[in-house]
Structures are given as C-alpha cells and as structure tokens.
Amino acid sequence: MLRIGSLELGLRAVQAALSGFSDRPMRLVARRHGLEYALNEVVLDRLILAHRRERLDPEDHPIGGQLMGSRPAEFARAAAEMVEAGYDVVDLNFGCPVRKVLGRCRGGWLLSEPATALEIVRAVMGAVAGRRPVTVKMRRGYDDSAESERRFWTILDGALALGVAAATVHGRTVKQRYVGPSDWSFLARVKRHVGERTILGSGDLFTAEAVKRMLDETGVDGASVARGAIGHPFIFEECRALLAGEPLPPPPSVAEQRAALEEHLALAIEEYGEDRGGRGMLKFGLRYADLHPMGPEVRRAFLGVRDVASFLRVLAEWYDSRRVWPPIVRQGMPSSLVAAGAAME
Hints:
Blueprint: E1 2-4, E2 7-9, E3 13-15, H1 24-31, E4 38-39, E5 43-44, H2 45-51, E6 63-68, H3 72-85, E7 89-94, H4 99-102, H5 114-128, E8 134-139, H6 146-162, E9 166-170, H7 184-194, E10 198-202, H8 208-218, E11 222-225, H9 235-243, H10 254-272, H11 274-288, H12 295-302, H13 308-318, H14 335-340
Parallel strand pairs: 3-11, 4-6, 5-6, 6-7, 7-8, 8-9, 9-10, 10-11
Antiparallel strand pairs: 1-2
Helix pairs in contact: 1-10, 2-3, 3-5, 5-6, 8-9, 10-11, 11-12
C-alpha cells in the first residue's frame, strides 16, 4: 500500500502533474488502464483564485491538485479553494525547472529560499486545516553545491515537521532540468533519512520495469511517473502486474493502442470541443506513436494532424488491425523524447 495521509492506494505508481498534458482526458484514459491516483496539471495559485471552483469528474478520484506560486497568502487561499472544489490532496510545487517559472520566483526557485518555502507550507497547512493531506514536490536541490543540498534538507525536514503527508523527490537538480540521469542514490538517502515518512521518487521512469527497479533499489514508498505516462496509459496496468509479482503483460497491440487513442480523442472533444480537442491530440499522438511497431512513420503521419478528420485518417491508415504489423518491441526512453528534448515535469 502507498499511504498519503488518510489516502490508501493499492498501486504504488502514480501519475505526476504534467503541464500541458495531464488534463482530465489523459487522466481518465490512464485510470481505465490501471491508474489509481493522479495529479492535475500544475496551476498558478492566482489562477485558482481568479476562476474559483473547478469541475472534477466523479470518475477522476482520487486526485491531487498541484499549486505553484511565490506568495504564501495566495498559496493558502488557493489551497482552501482546492479543498472546497473536491481535490483529495493538495500538492505544492517546489521543483519546476522551467526558466520562465524560475524567473518569477516560483517552482524550483523556492529550493533556494528555505524560509519562503516553509512559510508557504505553514500557510497552506493552516488553510487546509487537516481536511486533506498536503504534499510537496521537490528536486534534490537547486544545483549541485553543498549549500543547495543543505537547503534541500532544511525544506524537507521543515515540511515534514509542519505536517505534510508525503514528499515527491526528483533525482535531478533544478539547474539540470532534464539533462543527465536522475540520481536514484539520492532518493535512497532521502528515504533512509525520513524513516517511515512517505517518499515518492521521480525521474527516468519510462517503463514498468524502471518503476519496479526504483522501488526495489531506493526503498521509496511510491513512484511518480511523469513523461513516461504521456501516450502510454498502459504503463500503469504493467506496473500493477509487476508490483504484484506477476509477469509483465505483452506490449499493447496495435488494436489496443487504437482503442486508447479513440477514447482519448472522444474525451478531448468532450472536454474542449471538436476544434481545440482535435488539434490538441497532436502532441499525444506523437507520444502514442512510440508504442507502434512503425513508430517513426506514424510520428510523421501525426505531424500532419490539424483537426479531428486528419487524426482519424491517421488511425484508419496506421492502426488498421487487419494489416500485418511487425512485432512490437519494448523500449526504454521513448524516441520522441530523445528527439524533442525535455518536457515539463
């Protein structure tokens, strides 16, 4: 079991907050393939205050709402709004490495300002007042300096002392962004340091085998799957099997991939309308293509998607179950990520 405060989860792999990706359609498709707990796209505290209540799908639970900002009072008011809106967990983003976020003293910038970070935690804990678990998302420091690591431990220890239910730690620094490997040995140090407190690890989780290896090697309580879940909702049913001691299921067939894509498209149209929903599926199609036995060709086809009709034409041509396709080969980091570089996580 993975415990986040009063929340008990049977699957120790969760879906991370991914700006521009982890919306309701992506979450629901993943839930139908074994996912149990997900976080929404990270949102600015001031936007929550401006738009007030968000609509949550009854099927989309348990769900965490991730907040980002720089001012403790705004964090606190937004956290209270999230509780009223029905989120099951309030998560605080102290890890985003995107330059425009850092330039506004948000996200990973707060790892260089322990006093401000802990003031935010204190304010949010007061506003939530025990009604929901509060968690934090961190990286292992702002950079590789000894001072940065000391600040990390100050924030982590302080947040736990203030009552946060869990911390998710990414094994890269903020300065690293997505370059180089995630340092899983640091995750092991964190878990040894906190003892029974709940820690989730993050970084380089592109397969179910990697999820299991992280849990086994580091001792963390859970694994936060970020980029590895984009276009790969099947990763969660694969994790569920491996973590239960069962054999890894076979890779999803072309027909199973098509069914997931069609469901994702239908949910996107329901959420955003046909025009925006169809255009928005391009970025997902490019990631789903990594599962296809003819991935490079399918990615090129998806690059031509401009609307629902063109998306359906790609499905008709490249996901035709009557065709004989080459064997599907599992891979580590998807080739689309290698080509495209870092995405927000």
